[in-house]
UniProtKB/TrEMBL annotation:
Chain's gene name: LOC107941829
Species: Gossypium hirsutum (Upland cotton)
Family: Belongs to the glycosyltransferase 8 family.
Bilayer topology: Single-pass type II membrane protein
Highest classification ranks of the organism: Eukaryota, Viridiplantae, Streptophyta, Embryophyta, Tracheophyta
UniProt-listed SUPFAM superfamilies: Nucleotide-diphospho-sugar transferases (SSF53448)
Protein name: Hexosyltransferase
Catalytic activity, EC: 2.4.1.-
Length: 522
């Protein structure tokens, strides 16, 4: 199996040539998705099963951009102008060869007249609205003349050369626009929406203006008998939806404590927001993770808050001479910041970690009674992606090639056993080894750290893919306890998949003053 690593945003031209001979072994391409900004990839019927090969190849190269582009395809503008330009180019390609044939003087004259006529029209028109009323007849005459030219026996070398030229030009132009569109898509994914930036700034200012309701409950924050949920986030409305949806479906919110871990830049905005809003009987603590970082990070790791890392894993290979088979999986795993949990919550023995791109639809209290045996973490396993399939990214570390990968999003963590087994120390050791040897991917060290230590949660707990897969059924969405919007098309972005946004947006208060003033309307 051939493996190759590619950068997060890479947009070269995709060209697949079919070759005869021995089958090409399947390839695995693992690409980090765009990192979410922390500093301030169903739909149409048959999409999942009957997706065309061109779209598969596009997704392999550009990820969820291709699916988004296909679902949001617009009708071609000024199609007649484009058609006339194509006719003009083809006519010019045939004209020199036809003109050399004495018996085709009349056809030569017709070609010349039609070429001159279209040149005049296109010199005066740039859009379909500018074209004269009789343009359809002119186009039909040109089409008939080109058809006659094609039926004439001639030296095709010049025609072939010209037509190859238009093919190459068109292909280059299409590739340029594809790269440009994919770049703009990635830019939209990585950039914080203006409305949310406004919200963060407004809340920060208000925090320093108003100190009248600083009512925190530090006793509950460290009480090990309560249900503690941890959220890593820099996004006010995303973390709000997670907390609100969890509380709204809880049988008893009195026992719920939420810890929102954010960075220094967003700390005061988060703090003001959660102090000013209530979530039934649950309490919310906002923590600035920055003070914890210098003691546990070193020069080989970034000294800032890291949100869960997302990857696109593509499998592709040619099994026969005429068919390319490919499939794509999206996985998200713990980042560096998650390995600070035992130190941040020294008095706690168990926590549930929630990503900020999820929506809770059922009561989660049964997670606290799970018997995980000797396992450290409960997580959804992804057995369609196994460690052996991404071995090139794992370095020389020993691992079981048939071990399943796992997902962040909803994770039950036994902190007592984590400390006993030295999970954090194991992780940092793996990261240092991979960085020093310049092999593998340090971002995937989490997969090795928890090898044989994962308790597999029932798949009904989480439905993933709402950030990239247009083909999820309504039935499966309603059945899932947790919806995970993993992928690039997050529900708070304009690029989010519209039919999935309704499950997310209903947990925001549309009457909130700050949301209205900043025009936050996902």
């Amino acid at each position: 199996m051939k493996l190759k690593m590619k950068p997060a945003v890479q947009m070269p031209h995709v060209k697949v040539r079919k070759k005869k001979g021995t089958p090409v072994p399947p390839q695995v391409v693992l690409q980090p998705l765009s990192k979410r900004n922390i500093s301030g990839d169903g739909g149409k019927a048959g999409m999942k099963g009957g997706i065309n090969e061109g779209l598969r190849l596009c997704e392999l190269q550009y990820g969820s951009y291709c699916i988004w582009h296909e679902e949001n395809r617009e009708d071609m503008k000024d199609s007649m102008v484009k058609k006339l330009k194509d006719q003009l180019f083809v006519a010019r390609a045939y004209y020199p060869s036809v003109a050399k044939i004495p018996a085709q003087n009349m056809l030569t004259r017709d070609l010349r007249q039609n070429i001159q006529e279209l040149e005049r029209v296109l010199s005066e028109s740039t859009t379909d609205a500018d074209l004269p009323p009789e343009i359809q007849k002119k186009s039909e005459r040109m089409e008939a003349t080109i058809a006659k030219s094609k039926s004439v026996t001639m030296d095709c070398h010049n025609v072939d050369k010209k037509l190859r030229q238009i093919f190459d030009l068109t292909e280059d132009e299409a590739n340029f626009h594809m790269k440009q569109s994919a770049f703009l898509y990635q830019l939209a994914v990585q950039t914080m929406p203006k409305s949310q930036h406004c919200l963060s700034m407004r809340l920060t200012v208000e925090y320093f203006r108003d100190d009248s309701f600083d009512q925190e409950l530090p006793v509950k924050y460290s009480d090990p008998t309560l249900q503690h949920y941890v959220i890593f986030s820099t996004n006010v409305i995303a973390s709000t939806v997670v907390i609100n949806s969890t509380v709204m479906h809880a049988r008893d919110s009195m026992n719920q404590v939420f810890h929102v871990l954010t960075n220094g830049q967003n700390y005061y905005a988060m703090k003001h927001w959660f102090l000013g809003n209530t979530f039934k009987d649950a309490v919310v603590e906002v923590l600035n993770i920055d003070p914890f970082i210098p003691d546990y990070y070193d020069k080989t790791t970034p000294s800032h808050l890291n949100l869960p890392t997302e990857f696109r894993v593509s499998f592709h290979g040619i099994n026969n001479a005429s068919a390319m088979h490919s499939r794509t999986q999206y996985i998200s795993i713990f980042s560096h910041s998650h390995y600070l949990l035992p130190e941040i919550f020294k008095n706690l023995e168990k926590v549930v970690v929630l990503d900020d791109d999820i929506v809770v639809q059922q009561d989660l209290s049964t997670l606290w009674s799970l018997n995980m045996g000797q396992k450290v973490m409960g997580a959804i396993q992804i057995c369609s992606v196994r460690l052996g399939q991404v071995r090139s990214y794992l370095g020389e570390s020993s691992f079981h090639k048939n071990s399943c990968t796992w997902m962040s999003g909803l994770n039950v963590i036994d902190l007592a056993r984590w400390r006993k087994l030295g999970i954090s120390e194991t992780y940092w050791k793996l990261v240092k080894e991979q960085v020093s040897k310049k092999e593998g991917s340090a971002a995937l060290a989490s997969l090795l750290t928890f090898q044989d230590l994962i308790y597999a949660l029932d798949n009904d707990w989480v439905l993933s893919g709402l950030g990239h897969d247009y083909g999820l059924s309504t039935q499966s969405i309603k059945k899932a306890a947790v919806l995970h919007y993993n992928g690039n098309m997050k529900p708070w972005l304009e690029l989010g998949i519209p039919k999935y946004k309704v499950y997310w947006i209903k947990f925001l208060n549309p009457e909130n003053q700050f949301l209205n003033e900043c025009n936050v309307n996902p």
